[in-house]
Amino acid sequence: MQGVKRKVVYVSLYELIAIGFTSFGLAELAGQELGRASIAAVASSIIAVIWNLVYNTGFEYWESRQSVRGRSVLRRAAHALGFELGLVVLLVPLFAWWLHISLWQAFVLDLGLIVFFLIYTFVFNLAFDKVFGLPASALPAQ
Fold first, then answer.
1. In angstroms, rounded to a whole number, what is the distance separating the alpha carbons of residues 121 and 126?
2. Does residue 112 form part of some domain?
3. Domain-embedded: residue 98
């Protein structure tokens, strides 16, 4: 599976599974009912997808104007850090408000989500590539 179909399947599966895990995690860690935590999980998923589109569009616009081309380790690290910081700014107030917890508790909760998503993304990508094969960009040249 390649192209747009692969991207749609990837994002759909990734987010649906993430919402499931996040719902249970938020319920347990924030001491909330599963329904309330699930709404926070769905909202954070929607925000993350929209933020990803906005952030990457802006980053790629900035990147296209740089005299040094390519993606060094430093540029990749700056990209990841910028994305995560933006997501923290967007999600911490939402979690505090919706889950009726302090900003500090929401921040700590969000840090836990960042760690979870680092591991989840790694494992999900391995499994996705095993089931659906590698994308064309990663296949050996023929």
1. 9
2. yes
3. yes
Q: How many domains does the chain have?
A: 1
Whether 95 and 109 have beta carbons less than 8 Å apart is answered as yes
pTM to 2 decimals? 0.82
139 part of a folded domain: no
- Give the tokens for residue 75: 């540029």
Residues 97, 101, 102, CA angle at the centre, nearest 5°?
Answer: 95
User: Is 141 within the bounds of a domain?
Assistant: no
Per-residue pLDDT of the chain (142 residues; tens, 9 = 90+): 788 898 899 999 999 999 999 999 999 988 889 999 999 999 999 999 999 889 988 988 888 888 887 788 898 889 889 999 999 999 999 999 999 999 999 999 999 999 999 899 989 989 988 998 877 777 777 7
CB atoms within 10 A of CB 115: 9
What's the helix, strand, coil split of the chain in %, to 5?
A: 85, 0, 15
